[in-house]
């Protein structure tokens, strides 16, 4: 049991030291002009709505990198990598720059133009060093069906 706890702590330590690479895919509203960018804005509890997070001077450091994968008429499909792991970080940052995640009922004014259940934000891959074998691990998750269907729909426009 103690050995297992030590191994779990090894992964926690990697997360704390920013050694775990987390990659997400998202569909956001609007057309992003930059091909890639970094958002470095602190995030903390919203002073207006305690249930929400927001960009605030009193917040903790939050760094989000994104790269455009595809532009559509009114949307942008992006790959997102986060350096920090703040609550709702991607959703807050993208909404703050005027490109909220599609289907995000909290940070996008309740708009859900495709009627999706959930957000168009997907945890695509995770890279870390296995705490026992010390081998580099790369885990991937395929896009959910609803996400793929929306992208196919946009391709037809």
Short description:
This protein has 157 residues and is an alpha+beta fold. It has helices at 2-16, 89-96, 145-155; strands at residues 21-29, 36-40, 43-45, 53-55, 63-71, 75-82, 121-129, 136-140.
Word description of this protein:
The chain is of the alpha+beta class and 157 residues long. It has one domain: Pseudouridine synthase (2-Layer Sandwich), CATH 3.30.2350.10. It is built from 3 helices and 8 strands, in the order αββββββαββα. The protein has a 6-stranded antiparallel sheet with strand order 2-5-6-1-7-8, with helices on one face. Strands 3-4 form a two-stranded antiparallel sheet. The protein is globular, with a radius of gyration of 17 Å.
Task: Annotate the secondary structure layout.
Elements: H1 2-16, E1 21-29, E2 36-40, E3 43-45, E4 53-55, E5 63-71, E6 75-82, H2 89-96, E7 121-129, E8 136-140, H3 145-155
How many DSSP E strands?
A: 8
Arrangement of strands in the largest sheet? 2-5-6-1-7-8
Q: Architecture, CATH level 2?
A: 2-Layer Sandwich
- For this structure, the CATH topology is Pseudouridine synthase
Largest sheet: 6 strands, antiparallel
The portion of residues forming beta strands comes to: 25-35%
Backbone CA Rg: 17 Å
- The first-level CATH class is given as Alpha Beta
Low-confidence stretches: none
How much helix is in the residues? 10-25%
Between the first and last Cα atoms, what is the distance in angstroms?
55 Å
Number of domains: 1
The CATH fourth-level homologous superfamily: Pseudouridine synthase
Q: What class, by secondary structure content?
A: alpha+beta
């Amino acid at each position: 049991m103690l050995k297992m706890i030590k191994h779990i702590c090894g992964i926690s330590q990697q997360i704390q030291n920013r050694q775990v690479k987390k990659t997400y895919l998202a569909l956001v509203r609007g057309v992003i002009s930059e091909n890639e960018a970094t958002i470095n804005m602190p995030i903390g509890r919203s002073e207006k709505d305690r249930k929400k997070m927001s960009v605030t001077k009193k917040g903790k450091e939050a760094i989000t990198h994104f790269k455009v994968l595809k532009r559509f008429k009114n949307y942008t499909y992006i790959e997102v990598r986060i350096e920090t792991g703040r609550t709702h970080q991607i959703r807050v940052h993208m909404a703050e720059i005027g490109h909220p995640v599609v289907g995000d009922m909290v940070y996008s004014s309740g708009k859900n133009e495709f009627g999706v259940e959930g957000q168009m934000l997907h945890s695509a891959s995770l890279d870390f060093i296995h705490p026992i074998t010390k081998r580099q691990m790369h885990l991937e998750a395929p896009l959910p069906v609803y996400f793929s269907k929306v992208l196919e729909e946009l391709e037809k426009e």
